[in-house]
């Protein structure tokens, strides 16, 4: 446990950020799952668009590395393209 006031504050801010980042990553995983489990090609494409927006936002905020975001978007595109 930190004794210095600024270290205590930093710890609290880190805890809040970790909580928010966890929520964002969970939303991304759910969006990817929706694309994967979509019933039709059109539905998969709609879910892909929503997932892509979430991934882009997370990469902009550095919650995930931009290269990882690009890789996920590429995988989503492939999922939609191969969806029958």
Can you characterise this structure?
With 84 residues, this protein is mostly helical. The chain has a single domain, classed as Up-down Bundle (Methane Monooxygenase Hydroxylase, Chain G, domain 1). It is 82% helix and 0% strand. The protein contains three helices and no strands. The longest helix is centred in the N-terminal third of the chain and has 32 residues. The chain starts with a helix and ends with a helix. The model has no long low-confidence stretch (mean pLDDT 95).
Per DSSP, what share of the residues sits in E-state strands of 2 or more residues?
under 5%
CATH architecture: Up-down Bundle
Number of strands: 0
Oligomeric composition of the shown chains? single chain
Query: What's the CATH H-level homologous superfamily?
Result: Ribosomal protein S20
Q: Report helical residue fraction.
A: over 70%
Point out poorly predicted stretches.
none
The shape, in one word, is elongated
Number of domains: 1
Structural class: mainly alpha
Major sheet size, sense and barrel closure = none
Q: What number is the mean pLDDT?
A: 95
Radius of gyration: 17 Å
Number of helices: 3
* Assigned CATH class: Mainly Alpha
Give the CA-CA distance, first to last residue.
Answer: 55 Å
Could you tell me the CATH topology label: Methane Monooxygenase Hydroxylase, Chain G, domain 1
Order of secondary-structure elements: HHH
């Amino acid at each position: 446990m930190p004794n210095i006031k600024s270290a205590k504050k930093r710890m609290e801010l880190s805890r809040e950020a970790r909580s928010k980042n966890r929520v964002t990553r969970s939303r991304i995983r759910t969006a990817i799952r929706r694309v994967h489990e979509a019933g039709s090609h059109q539905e998969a494409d709609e879910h892909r668009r929503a997932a892509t927006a979430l991934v882009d936002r997370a990469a902009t905020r550095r919650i995930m590395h931009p290269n990882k975001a690009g890789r996920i978007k590429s995988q989503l595109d492939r999922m939609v393209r191969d969806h029958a």
